[in-house]
Design goal:
Layout: H1 2-7, H2 43-56, H3 58-64, H4 66-73, H5 80-90, E1 111-115, E2 118-122, H6 127-137, H7 158-162
Antiparallel strand pairs: 1-2
Length: 211
């Protein structure tokens, strides 16, 4: 209850929306059917597109990546083009700017946001990250090596939440005209630094064990 009270009223965490998805330098960007290989999103497009968006609609950049990238570099207030240069200069993860998106989101990081409509500093969480943080605060991860600090909920997606083997029985869908199949439901035991370095390429979306 204490954790919930500490985050109640905070805005939706758009600032961290990308980081549960991008874990690797090149193993997460989507490709189009039918072959899922000949037409894909690549870093070279992101490298050009994000600075253009930042230059023309800076509010989008501020919402989705500026503060998060600065945290990954230990910098403040750098804009996108300057962030690319700083990442190359720092040789982030041995790969420079292309690796900046794959730096692990730390649960200890706080962002400029709003709380009940007033400016505030606090956690930036999307729905699945909020659920994971509730579990974390309740002690779900205390028993793994390194304790709860060894899990960063900012790296979790919806499938990462429901694949944890913490549920009893089968799941039941209560709304909707179409059936939703939850692959890997209730199948994964928590481990340190889980979901921090996982590829997710279509059409199989396979991932390495322990990623």
């Amino acid at each position: 209850y204490g954790f919930f009270k500490s985050v109640a009223g905070l805005d939706y965490g758009y600032q961290t929306m990308l980081w549960g998805w991008i874990d690797t330098v090149s193993g997460n960007y989507p490709c189009l059917p039918p072959d899922f290989s000949s037409m894909c999103l690549h870093w070279e497009l992101i490298e050009v597109l994000l600075p253009i968006i930042d230059a023309h609609v800076p509010s989008i950049a501020d919402t989705f990546w500026i503060e998060a990238f600065n945290k990954r570099l230990g910098t403040t207030e750098l804009r996108t083009s300057s962030l690319w240069k700083a990442a190359d200069d720092a040789d982030v993860l041995g790969a420079g700017a292309p690796a900046l998106l794959s730096v692990v989101e730390q649960d200890a990081w706080e962002y400029r946001t709003n709380r009940y409509g007033e400016a505030a500093i606090g956690k930036a969480m999307v729905c699945c990250v909020f659920v994971c943080n509730i579990w974390k605060a309740a002690g779900l991860f205390d028993g793994i090596d390194g304790g709860s600090d060894a899990v960063n909920c900012g790296e979790f997606t919806n499938v990462d939440d429901y694949s944890l083997d913490i549920f009893s029985g089968t799941y039941k869908q209560i709304l909707g005209n179409h059936q939703v199949k939850l692959n890997r439901y209730n199948s994964q035991t928590a481990y340190p630094h889980m979901n921090e370095n996982c590829a997710s390429l279509a059409p199989d979306y396979s991932r390495a064990a322990g990623c």
